[in-house]
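In the laboratory, one determines a bound structure by crystallizing the protein with its ligand and collecting diffraction data. In a computational setting the workflow is compressed into a single prediction: the sequence and the ligand go in, and a structural description comes out. We illustrate the idea with pyridoxal-5'-phosphate.
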Amino acid sequence: MSDTTKFVLSEKQIPDAWTNVVPYLPTPPPPPLHPGTHQPLGPQDLAPIFPMALIEQEVSTQPEIDIPGEVLDIYRLWRPTPLFRARRLEQALGTPAHIYYKYEGVSPAGSHKPNTAVPQAYYNKKAGMRRISTETGAGQWGSALALACRLFGLDCTVYMVKVSYQQKPYRRSLMRAWGAEVYASPSEHTQAGHKMLAADPDSAGSLGMAISEAVEDAATHADTNYSLGSVLNHVLLHQSVIGIEAQKQMALAGERPEVVIGCFGGGSNFGGIALPYAIETLKGGPKTRLLAVEPLACPSLTKGVYAYDFGDTAQMTPLLRMYTLGHDFMPPGIHAGGLRYHGAAPLLSHMLAEGLIEARAVPQVPVFEAAVLFARCEGILPAPEAAHAIRAAIDEALAAREEGRARTILFCLSGHGHFDLGSYDTFFDGKLLDYEHPAEAIARAMQTLPRV
Ligand SMILES: *Cc1c(COP(=O)(O)O)cnc(C)c1O
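The predicted complex, in structure-token form:
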């Protein structure tokens, strides 16, 4: 075993292909359905809003897909990302466990999201698009796509959930710096937004509403496509660079993880770090526990139902079979804005239902306690989203201490928290509250699920 703390790869070791778990699964995931006919979706159904290259990746059963050279050229700006052993955190916890983390906050946008924003912008540019529309919650995805569009000379329109637009102005500034136009959603810019404002002029917005606006914008403009930052198969595919690199770095460390952990919003950073390990296991290799961690305030995986539901509030998207809290879900104002989606990646939902991954929900005060302990030991101030993974990694390390045996833990540190200092202040001032999504709200939401 190495006594190194930071494990780096050379530029040449950036993966040259993304890996796809789908061909290795014991049973195929249920297909998306057309929202009108309830029949399995065909490639043509998606063509108005996605380029064919991404639609092909969405349904691909190839084990590997080559990463285009132009995408690799941009990945090189921050990849390979470093992998660290959290030695000072281990010491502070007094645990025999070894804790490793893969740090994705070194990208220009400060999170893992450019790993998919860049190829998505690339394939849209190649398909002759002029503009991409999207939604964003707290602004991480909007800023990643704004960056990627700028690098490929595309325009970018972002519908930003209104409450974040008002309360988190600095990610909006970042998007504007990279040349994106940003609307507070619901907006008067789309019919869907207009209807939502007519129903509730003071609406604070939600991710589901902003998706409706962005999809409508793309569907009604021939030179514009839509882009989604999580949930879909092609997004998980692009994020596999995280796990492929981590496997090489863990080999440098001379260890293999017993448990791999990621925070869970729609599933892209968790899938990114975990699915290459799932492939290893499904190919007959050693078994690795794969643990997704979500907020107790938005517990899709642990309290939602596994059913077909819409991806958005206005019921415009295909029906996806996923763990869902209902497409009308209005998240409470928790401080991990990136983890407030009502649904979950269909691929990962399928794997959870099949027992191939695990899920856990954690309350936000212990999450911030973990974040601050991490910052004081390791230096990096984590994004509140990523701190959910830290909480679970710490709890695994404490369990190892109880058992008095070593255990190797790997987690994805999906981003830094430099734009989340307001949330940290709320925590330091003792004003952060734990909130549990009430069971009645879930029961009510289930009444609105489409009958398939
Ligand atoms: C968006 C975001 C997440 C949540 O999204 P996933 O698709 O579940 O990964 C987590 N961490 C950070 C830093 C994010 O920006």
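DSSP finds 18 helices and 15 strands in the chain. Keep in mind that any predicted model is a hypothesis to be tested, not a measurement.
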